Every structure is written in structure tokens, then in C-alpha cells.
Amino acid sequence: MGKFIVIDGPDGCGKTTQIRLLNQYLKRQHRRVLVVRDPGSTPISEGVRKILLNPRYKEMTPLTELFLYFASRAQLVDQIISPALKKNTIVICDRFLSSTIVYQGYAGNIGAKKVRDLWRQASGGFEPDITIILDVPPKKGFERIKNSRASSDRMEQKALLFHKKVRAGFIKLARSDKRKYKLIDGTKSISEIQTEIRRITNYLLRGLCEVRN
Q1: What is the pLDDT of residues 106-130, one digit of tens each?
Q2: Looking at residues 155-165, what average pLDDT do you find?
Q3: E strand spans, 20-105
Q4: Distances from the Cα of 200 to the Cαs of 42, 183, 211, in angstroms?
């Protein structure tokens, strides 16, 4: 059975760069690796992604977001992630359930418990082996986004107060279960962050009962 690793965090935290580096690192070890994104990575999920992130749909409610994310994620798990894990593949995912717990559960006021309960019904409780959260203050994250591309998506365009709640939600989630979640200071250098991610990943792949902090 493979391992399912999620890298998550507030907008502009540097997930894309760290996922690319981790993928390269594991492939140099001749491991079978698959990188996916949530929402996305299947035709259906990519279609849902376009709706979720379209800036025109400003009236979309957190509950609508929740069910759209679940629909996209359920397709991704069934079509790509589960089959890959059965083939002993390491799956690295850009965002997953942790984002929904934080963005819709905490910041969107649906409630983390309700999000988890609904996901259990939708998926049978499918969860990652480890979720690595990169922590950055909202202003720092948006400086990075502004410097990297011309426009922002619908979620990124939400008010600063919302993104402050997002950051607080990720920190709260990471502290709720240090076995499942690992919090890394995303303001460190790219190489320092990658070193920590590799250390966590190596412990996981060695089959230790608990990834050390």
C-alpha cells in the first residue's frame, strides 16, 4: 500500500514549490510518485474547480462550496488516489480535507465537526497518512501571489479578515492532532522548509508508528 501525503496551508504559503521539490526528491530515490491537486486532476474535478474559483461567483455560499469540494474530492479519490495507493504509489496532494475544514468549517462558520461528519458520509472517512501545513501570515501570502501572477481567484479575493480566520484555523487544526498534522513555518527559506518536509516524509515512509515533531 502506498502513502498519501497532503501539503496544505493559507493562500500564498508556497505549496506548489514545495510539492515540486518533494516530487523530485522522491523520484531520485526511484520511488513511484503521483502529484495531484484538490480540487482537480480528473476531468470532472477540474470542471468543478473552474466553478469554485471563478471570481464571477461572489455570491457562492460556504455550504455550496462545501458540497462542490466534496463532489470534486470524491471523484479524485475514487478515480485516481485510491487506485494509485493500491499500486504502492506515494500520492502527494495539493490541498485536501484540511482545506475544507479550515476554509468552510472554521472561516466559513459551518463548523469543523460538521465538515468531518459529512466527509465520512461522502467517502467512508478516507483521510491522508499525513498533512503538512505551511504557515504564513495573510499579508505575506498575498505579496507572494501578487509577485507570481497577474490575477487572483475567487477564494483569494475574499476579505483579509476571512484569510486571518483561515490562518488561525490551520494553526488550530495542526495543534488538534500532532500525529496527523505537521505545522511548518512557511516564512523560512525554501530549502529550510523542504528539509523539514523531507524529514517528515522519510519518517512516514520508514513505517514508524508516529512521525516525530
Answers
A1: 999 999 999 999 999 989 889 999 9
A2: 88
A3: 33-37, 90-94
A4: 28, 11, 6
DSSP state for residue 189 in the 8-state scheme = -
Phi, psi of 179 (to 5 degrees): -80, -40
Q: Which residues contact 182 (CB under 8 A, 6 or more apart)?
A: 130, 131, 132, 133, 174, 200, 211, 213
Q: Which residue has the cell 483579509?
A: 160
Per the listing, cell 496532494 goes with 93
Low-confidence winner among 24-28, 161-165, 195-199 (lowest mean pLDDT) = 161-165
Q: Which three cell numbers stand for residue 154?
A: 475567487
* pLDDT band at 149; cut points 50, 70, 90: low
Name the region of 88 (left: φ>0; alpha: ψ -120 to 50; beta: rest): left
Q: Cβ neighbours of residue 191 under 8 Å, at least 6 residues apart? A: none
The CB density around residue 199, as the number of other CB atoms within 10 Å, is: 13
